[in-house]
Write a structure and sequence with these properties.
The chain has four helices and four strands. It has 161 residues and is mainly alpha-helical. The longest helix has 23 residues.
Length: 161
C-alpha cells in the first residue's frame, strides 16, 4: 500500500509545497492549464516569474483553492481505475458508425499554424483543429459516396469536387 501524500502539489516555480485546501495561483492562459503543464504557483511572485519564460501577451494570476486530501485521493483512485480499464477497439470499415471510432485530429497542428502565420501573421486557436477535422471528415464522406457510385474502391481527387 502506498503512503498518503502530505501535500497536494509543488509550486511550478520555486518548488515549495502547496498543501491541501490552501490557496494557490494559476495562469489565466489556457496553455499553462492543460494536462501535462498544469502549472500551480504558491504566490503571485512565483506566477510572475514564469511570464518572461512563457512570453504571454496578456495574462493574470487567478486565485484557486487546492482540493481536500479526501477529494484528491478519490480523484487519484478514479484516474487509476480509468487507466487500468482497457479501451474498446474502434470499429472501422463498412458498417462502422460515426461514434464508433475515436475522433482523432486529421490535421497536423504545427503545419496548419505555420501556414496561417506565413500567410497572415496571425496565430491559430487549437479549437480550429477540431472544426477543420470535422469538415475534412464531411468532405471525405462525400468523396467515398462519389467513389462508390462510380463503382470504384479508390477515392480519387475528382471525388472531392
Amino acid at each position: 500500500m502506498s503512503e498518503e501524500p502530505s501535500t497536494w502539489k509543488r509550486c511550478s516555480s520555486c518548488k515549495r509545497e502547496i498543501g491541501f485546501e490552501r490557496v494557490y495561483w494559476v495562469c489565466s492562459v489556457s496553455t499553462c492549464n492543460r494536462k501535462g503543464t498544469d502549472f500551480a504557483f504558491c504566490s503571485v511572485e512565483c506566477w510572475d516569474a514564469h511570464l518572461p519564460v512563457m512570453r504571454h501577451r496578456e495574462a493574470w494570476a487567478e486565485e484557486v483553492r487546492a482540493p481536500s486530501r479526501t477529494a484528491f485521493l478519490r480523484e487519484q483512485a478514479s484516474a487509476a481505475a480509468a487507466a487500468a480499464t482497457p479501451p474498446l477497439p474502434a470499429k472501422t470499415g463498412p458498417g462502422a458508425k460515426e461514434g464508433d471510432a475515436v475522433r482523432e485530429m486529421l490535421v497536423i497542428a504545427s503545419r496548419l499554424k505555420q501556414y496561417v502565420r506565413a500567410r497572415s501573421g496571425m496565430n491559430t486557436s487549437d479549437g480550429v483543429l477540431d472544426v477543420l477535422s470535422d469538415r475534412l471528415r464531411e468532405l471525405c464522406d462525400r468523396a467515398i459516396v462519389n467513389a462508390e457510385r462510380a463503382g470504384r474502391r479508390t477515392v480519387l481527387e475528382r471525388d472531392l469536387e
